Amino acid sequence: MRRTSHVIAALLACTLALPAFAGDAAPSANQRFGAPVVEKKAASIGKLAKKPASFAGKTLRIEGVVKDVCQGQGCWVEVQDAKGATFMAKSLDESVLLPKDCKGKRIVVQGVVMAMPAKGHDHDHGAEVAAHDCPTPSYVLSTQGAELVAKK
Asked: By CB count within 10 A, which of 4, 95, 96, 99 is most buried?
């Protein structure tokens, strides 16, 4: 009888501990930054990269993989599509900051295509990253919201 109660207790402990060992087996939720992404159809990053002026002022959704990310504060990401085309999404007011370790993750970004001033967009990441320079492309997707897509 005593042995049976030990076996039952051990089985119960294993059953209760099982979720802690599940790890990546259960899909996790997407991580959202800034406003919700509400645009349903993704724009072609290839077309956007070739003729960004034709999209200026338009709110777009782009999807792809994070090719690079700002190591200062996470204010910009370079999004790459399956064909290798890239476009930069940048939080101009730094209200949407992405994790510095999101490189290689799937991402969805919504924002407004904007021309950047000739000298770029000056901003200060602070003394701790004073040596860091953010790229200054001619056009960016001014980030309103972004989602890092969880693996399924």
From this structure: 96
Find all residues with CB under 8 Å of 71, minimum gap 6, and list them.
100, 129, 132
- Residue 57 pLDDT greater than 50, yes or no: yes
Tokens 């990401």 correspond to 77
21, 25, 27, 33 alpha-carbon torsion, rounded to 10° = 60
Secondary structure class of 72 (helix, strand, coil): coil
CA separation for the pair 123, 120 (Å, rounded): 9
Distances (CA, A) of 25 to 20, 21, 22: 11, 9, 5
